[in-house]
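Hey team,

Filing this mostly as a record. A colleague (T.K.) asked me to run one chain through the structure pipeline before their review meeting, and I want the input and output archived in the tracker in case anyone asks later how it was produced. No errors, nothing strange. Just documentation.

Input sequence:
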Amino acid sequence: MSQSQRDLSLRQMGQALGARARRGAVLAALSLAGCRSFDARVYNLKNLHDEGGLHVREAELVSESSFAVRELLRSLRQSPQSKSAPAPKRVENPPQTCLENLLGLARSKPASPREQALLVAWCTRIAMRDPWTLSRERAVIELGRVGRRLDCSGTFSAEPAASSAASPEQVRDALLVVARTAAREAQLASNPAWQADFGFPEQSADQASVSAAVAEDLPAACQALAQLELDLDGALRALQGLTLVCGHAWERDARFAPTLALALDLERRCVRFALARALREDGRDQSGSDPGLAGPPAMDGATDPAWARVRAAAVEASALARGADFLRELMTAGLEELEPESVTVAGLRALKRHGLPEAASERERRDWIQGMLKLAVQSPDGQVRTWAMRALERATNGEITGLREEAAFQWYQEHGQVEEPGRP
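Output structure:
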């Protein structure tokens, strides 16, 4: 083979290897799409909302694949992020786009502690502030699921009143101590941009107090933040800031373990406080839907107000996240206290799914069954009567079957342990 032939062969081989490398880079980027889908959804949700939680009409939105390609190029330092970011475009239906990204976020399923923290933070934020009922309802449902994974059962302190809760400045200062202690060498907390991103005041904390606290060990700094009287807003601020500063290190650096334990505590607070607020939903906490946006239809064709969807979702989500502890509170308060009817149905669905909690006495259990019997035969709402019968089937271990109220009367006649429910 002549020299020219060898040179041609080498050029062809180089071109083939170059093409293969380019294809490999493209395939690698596409394979990263699944890994980056979670971050792409978070990116879109952040850009779809303003600081107050309302939807914006123009936003920078990305697809999962384009976000993966952009992140790959940025990691290779071939394309600065500022040049690869898409330009803001008009969003035709911001509420629908928000809901789609929230659903995509939930479907992605958190694959790391950082992603779980982001999921809790965004579901909490949307459940609290989003102007669309459907998005708040879905966020509450997801909080129930993640609450079950976090094991939010047991008793816990109620959310402190605004007058006694830690101020944003106190949360910021405590979080600065944690961040600067955890990232003392890398100086990850020296950039104050993350403060403005998540609603912290722009002015920096007192440098003397922060510098003195940096000398403390990380567990002590985390404990100081955990001991603050945090309301839902404070817990959410702390979780978002902590995740931004330390989230990427939770899986690869054991020295950050105290911050991960703190994040899990903050996640549980967010889930419990957000669900407790949703249980009190009455439509007065939100300023309303976006201009020109029609509200969602009532549940199951009923006449209940739209906000009842959020309260009903909170009942079932609380039963899923807190289990028997919540169901015991529900039965002690009385099913008749659940209103409107769609919320009563949600409580009965939860009892059908999980069963009656353990009662303190046989008398208490009989009282609970008595309450369900009354709903089964006296409620004017057909859905309430139907689900009361289904809940009774679970509560009586199948002794009451079927959906007709005669089955409830027959069970009463056979047992005689409760007062006759009486026909309406």
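Quick notes for T.K.: Residues 110-287 form one domain. Residues 6-34, 78-83, 185-215, 287-301 have pLDDT under 50 and may be disordered.
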